[in-house]
Amino acid sequence: MAETASLPLVSLPNKMATVKVLAESPGLSSIPSTYTFPKNESDKKSSVSDTEYDDNLIPVIDFSLLTSSSPEVRSIIINDLREACQKWGFFKKSRRENLKESIFNLPPSPVDSERFQKSIAKEPERMARELLKGISESLGLEASYIDKTLNLNSGLQLLIANLYPPCPQPDLAMGLPPHSDHGLLTLLTQNGIGGLQLQHNSKWVNVDAPPNSFLVNTGDHIEILSNGKYKSVVHRAIVNNKSTRISLAIANGPSLDTVVCPAQELIDN
Length: 269
Fold this sequence. Notes:
Layout: E1 3-4, H1 19-23, H2 41-46, E2 60-61, H3 63-66, H4 71-87, E3 90-94, H5 97-104, H6 113-138, H7 145-149, E4 156-164, E5 176-179, E6 185-190, E7 196-200, E8 203-206, E9 213-218, H8 220-225, E10 235-237, E11 245-253
Helix pairs in contact: 4-6
């Protein structure tokens, strides 16, 4: 039951224009049948609470170590990155607080693309490219392999903003259904309200975002390029009946005309 900035607005009953308007309707105690999300037995069995599955198991990648000039330190963090991509397809990484402030203080009117590129988009792009260098090395490839092979100088970057208003019947709705992301890496930040869940060992894990961190997940192109060694993680967003959640996802990938294939070095007989 999310409202997404990058998608057309949905038609709602009674000529309502947005999910936000619906959520703010006086006396709203139930959601229209249009917005109920049917859950199968697998969804019910795999749903977990914070106490049943500890998200502290999700790896944390210290970006400062990834950019260290020390070969020993870099070797350790590359190995951590390898394990994170193999076991989870997801990790948390530190970020600068002023980036968070600049993103969440964007004006409600359309943002000038050139100003956005200079003030906000450059830092996540730099982070993504450094992480992709580390991922290249973790696969036994040259650090510049992904950057050069997929021509990331002409790569694509998307900002996807989602608004999840309080829902009177959160058990019947879904913010975003289970999916994997296109592209290479997605960096996500949120306004302190949880709701992101990722699928791990057939269970849904509630993901908390600690202060000064980005949540990072691998996408479909990483799974293809790694010949399946790293998986594109399936995740979803749930809603609650108390607080509004805002998430901003910055997806990074190759240009639209790039063909992504498994790295030759990772193909066996």
